[in-house]
């Protein structure tokens, strides 16, 4: 990044923190910022945290607004297409049904949802299986004890 000189010196930020915040203000992800600056996305997140702490704000968006000014409107395109968001919202509202899934070979297959039951139904099913398992083990133990007693009776 090019040194911004007086613009950066007005804020108690290091050059790296300023660069991370500037790229964040340009709507770049931590991974994109890290690639451009040659650091990890974890380091980017730490620099943004340091910016927030030094500037006394809660979010990186607030820090960027404070340093670079601007409104609450996005300054660049969002990371997603609005149609993707609407499609995702619609899929969350509909009944679970098999969704197409692209496999490794590029073929599309139908994948059924993992769980068609609600949380309470799932818990009741787990409870029923647990109680049934306990009863089955108890029956096996009782049968083994009965066989043992029968064997003692026949041998004596």
From TrEMBL:
InterPro entries: Sig_transdc_resp-reg_C-effctor, Tscrpt_reg_LuxR_C, WH-like_DNA-bd_sf
Keyword line: Membrane, Transmembrane, Transmembrane helix
Tree of life domain: Bacteria
Domain HTH luxR-type, residue spans: 6-71
Transmembrane segments: 123-144
Name of the protein in question: Helix-turn-helix transcriptional regulator
Originating organism: Sphingomonas kaistensis
Lineage: Bacteria, Pseudomonadati, Pseudomonadota, Alphaproteobacteria, Sphingomonadales
